[in-house]
Every structure is written in C-alpha cells, then in structure tokens.
Amino acid sequence: MTVVVLWGFATVTLLxxxxxxALARRVSRKLEALxxxxxxxxxxxxxxxxxxxxxxxxxxxxxxxxx
Length: 67
Known about the structure:
mainly alpha; 2 helices; rod-shaped
C-alpha cells in the first residue's frame, strides 16, 4: 500500500513539474515577443523623431519640451 501511495505521489509531482515547465516556456515566448515589440517601437519612434527634426527643427524642439 505504501509503495502505491509513493508512486502516486511521484506521478502527481511529475505532472505538476511538467505543467510548470510548459507554463514557463509559454511565458518565455510571450516575454520574447513583448521585448521584440518594444525594441521595434523604440526604433520607429527614434526614426520618426529624427525625420520630424529634419523637416522642422523648431517645431520638434517645442514638442520635445514638457508642457
């Protein structure tokens, strides 16, 4: 009887560990996608800001100042 309980406990523990591993992989993929989106947005923002500066330097400086 004790052996059956130990095997049952080991099986449940293994299933919980596999579930945690799957969750960690999913969260890791989401974090990677979010990081990629952040850097793309930052790159686009910098590129657009430099284009605005070239078009009208005075207006870009006024927009950069806090209200």
